[in-house]
């Protein structure tokens, strides 16, 4: 059974920005808009709440002003800290998942659920479609496209993903 974390990593503070306490955040989410929707984020895996006064995309980072961080020196002290969001404040569109929830799923054959291909160990965002890395018991990695033709069912509750592999993806396929 897949245990979903309540607080999810959303980005890392990489630098101070300006003299008024803004920080540059390297976002770890699919779009800047996702990051900028939050008025509250967290440090220490959810243990410490912080109010977001404002956020905006800037080049490849998000410029964020956190309450109580009003100087460059205060902002510099936050460099290297990871920010978290609360999953209870997010509604994802149907059929989309947090990458952190997919990692660790057991990947099985949709036609024969006893046939286990391995564990989903990584997700690569390619632009066209995501690609899932499945690692078998011997440590061999196979990349599968995250497309409806292949991914038949994602069951986070039971920690399983059912797939219909494309011909040639796995050695034992005809």
Features:
mainly beta; 6-stranded antiparallel sheet; 6-stranded mixed sheet; Elongation Factor Tu (Ef-tu), domain 3; 3 helices; SH3 type barrels; single chain; 174 residues
Name of the CATH architecture of the largest domain: Beta Barrel
- In round numbers, the mean pLDDT is 90
How many helices? The count is 3
Number of individual domains: 2
Could you say which overall geometry the principal axes of the C-alpha atoms support? elongated
CATH topology annotation of the largest domain: Elongation Factor Tu (Ef-tu), domain 3
Strand order of the largest sheet: 3-4-5-2-1-6
CATH class of the largest domain: Mainly Beta
User: Low-confidence parts lasting 5 or more residues at pLDDT below 50?
Assistant: none
What percentage of the residues does DSSP assign to strands (E)? 35-45%
Helix share, percent: under 10%
């Amino acid at each position: 059974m897949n245990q979903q974390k309540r607080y999810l990593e959303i980005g890392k503070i990489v630098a101070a920005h300006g003299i008024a306490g803004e920080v540059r955040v390297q976002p770890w989410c699919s779009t800047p808009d996702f990051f900028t929707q939050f008025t509250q984020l967290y440090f220490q895996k959810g243990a410490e709440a912080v109010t977001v006064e404002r956020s905006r995309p800037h080049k490849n980072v998000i410029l964020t002003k956190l309450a109580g961080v009003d100087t460059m020196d205060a902002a510099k002290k936050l460099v290297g800290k990871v920010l978290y969001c609360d999953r209870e404040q997010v509604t994802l569109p149907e059929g989309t998942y947090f990458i952190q929830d997919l990692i660790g799923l057991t990947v099985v054959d949709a036609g024969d659920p006893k046939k286990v291909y391995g564990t989903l160990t990584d997700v690569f965002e390619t632009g066209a479609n995501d690609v899932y890395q499945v690692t078998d018991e011997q440590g061999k990695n196979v990349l599968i496209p995250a497309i409806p033709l292949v991914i038949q069912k994602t069951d986070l509750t039971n920690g399983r993903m059912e797939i219909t592999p494309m011909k040639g993806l796995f050695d034992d396929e005809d």
